[in-house]
Amino acid sequence: MNRAIDFLLGSTMRWLLLALAVIFPLVTDNEYHIYVMALAFIWAIAVYGMNIITGYCGQLNLAHGGFFAIGAYVVAILTVDHGWPFWPAFLAAGLFGAVFGFVVGIVSLRLKEHYFAIFTLCVGYIIYLMIDKWEALTHGSLGIINIAPPEGFGLVDFTQTIPFYYLVLAFLALAIWLTRRISESLLGRTFRAIRISDDLAQSLGINLMRNKVLAFVISTVYAAAAGGLYAGVVRFIGPEEANFIHTFDMIAYLLVGGIGTLMGPLLGTLVITWLTQAVQSLEEYRMIVFGPMLVLLVIFFPRGIVGTFLGWRGRRMARQAPRKTRESRVEQSDPHGADSKEARNNA
Questions:
Q1: In the chain, what are the domains?
Q2: In 188-227, which positions are buried (b, 16+ CB within 10 angstroms) versus exposed (e)?
Q3: Are 227 and 131 in contact (CB under 8 A)?
Q4: Closest CA to 40 of 247, 221, 266, 306
Q5: Could you give the residue ranges of the DSSP H alpha helices within 264-336?
Q6: Which of 52, 95, 196, 269 could form a disulfide with 44 if both were Cys (CB 3.0 to 4.6 A apart)?
Q7: Which residue intervals are annotated with compositional bias (Basic and acidic residues) in the record (predicted)?
Q8: Does 155 have pLDDT greater than 80?
Q9: Contact 226, 49 (CB under 8 A)
Q10: What is the separation, in whole angstroms, between the first and last Cα of the chain?
Q11: Which residues does 120 contact at the CB level (< 8 Å), separation at least 6?
């Protein structure tokens, strides 16, 4: 019964959020707000990738922003320097993300805990240096401009804000659906077993290296795909896209929303994005306001917004379970109890 209730509540929330996202451009006449929401959806896709390797598998990848930049640069280089259309370049970005993720994962995942985190932080910095210094390939600090946007079809033009918003929303819905399928599958349970304990997972016959590398590759494909979409909407990128600050931003999105939860990456990204927009008018003083707000969120919601809600709901259902059990036992021991009670009330 509890699992059925959880499924219905979770499904209802997902459909409600989807409906709100679909009607958002219809209820606002501010194109800038639609643009900001589309960018938030792109970052949320990357955060879902981080949730797979960090939230489900328990490996803190500090090079995640670098893989986001790899996807963006693959699309930029292929469309600008080689004349590729956007969609083949986008598919190539996902492929490059998988290949680079496999190579880095094979090497880095031999390390554990903070050693793995430090190694991936170095990898992220190496990616940044390569993008900044390899001018023949990446154009160096000048960046790449006039990146090709996604090709539309019929009357749909993805160079316009609203069509591109719905395109990104479709990719976000696909990312959430894939994440849910992974989470509920045997593979997702395997990832969570590794997160709990490497030794326990190995004693159960789980191949640690193979599953860790698989989780790493899946996460880098998410990041590279998000980077490719980002290049298509912004149409200009530079070395700052590989800055490790973006990785820490995504960690903040994940922690605020709820690490290891299905809807946490989306809610965390949206909350922080719009909080940032709300204090943007303060200019250089905005971090003085935004910083304490983020600290308060972490203090009062240590498991994130979604994680705190799920914990509260679990405790509430646990308190209700014994009472329902006692009531059912009373009814079984006195099948006429309900009729007697009704008779007493009528009297």
A1: 2-328 (1.10.3470)
A2: bebbbbbbeebeebeeeebebeebbbbbbbbbbbbbbbbb
A3: no
A4: 266
A5: 264-278, 286-300, 304-333
A6: 269
A7: 324-347
A8: no
A9: yes
A10: 36
A11: 60, 61, 62, 63, 104, 108
